[in-house]
Backbone:
């Protein structure tokens, strides 16, 4: 019964970063002047992001996200995002810790030499953590929870176009 409960808890937390972050990231977009049209180019995100002030939805797993801000009488402005690893991925290590402890303890107990046993235990713990977190890390990478788009909010100043004389 206990092992079934532990297994269920482990499966429930699979893809912990995705459960925390979700597949999409909402980014507030403000501008001067306001009323600037926002076009989104990011994975399967909608092309029209509305007008500022706005909130756009970006796919966390997309690798090339950009906003193009336009308004009549002003120079267009482009904002590029950088996909970075989310700190929420650390939760997967917490869930994988029991496996790391089991493998590290087994390595320590199977060693003949105490000093070598400590090194083996450390290596076993790290290997167990990696092994335990690997399925969740793959889920998070696939669905996007492993990533965040930077910047997390946008404020852009558009420059007036020069009038032709």
Residues:
């Amino acid at each position: 019964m206990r092992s079934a409960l532990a297994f269920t808890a482990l499966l429930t937390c699979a893809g912990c970063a995705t459960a925390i972050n979700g597949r999409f990231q909402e980014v507030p977009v403000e501008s001067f002047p306001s009323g600037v049209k926002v076009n989104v180019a990011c994975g399967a995100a909608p092309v029209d992001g509305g007008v500022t002030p706005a909130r756009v939805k970006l796919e966390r797993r997309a690798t090339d996200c950009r906003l193009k801000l336009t308004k009549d009488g002003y120079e267009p402005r482009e904002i590029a995002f950088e996909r970075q690893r989310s700190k929420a991925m650390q939760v997967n290590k917490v869930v994988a810790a029991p496996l790391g402890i089991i493998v590290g303890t087994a390595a320590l107990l199977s060693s003949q030499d105490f000093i070598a046993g400590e090194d083996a235990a450390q290596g076993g713990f790290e290997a167990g953590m990696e092994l335990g977190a690997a399925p969740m890390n793959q889920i998070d990478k696939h669905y996007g929870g492993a990533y965040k788009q930077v910047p997390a909010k946008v404020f852009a100043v558009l420059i007036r176009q020069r009038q032709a004389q």
Observations:
- The longest helix spans residues 114-143.
- The helical segments are 2-12, 16-21, 90-110, 114-143.
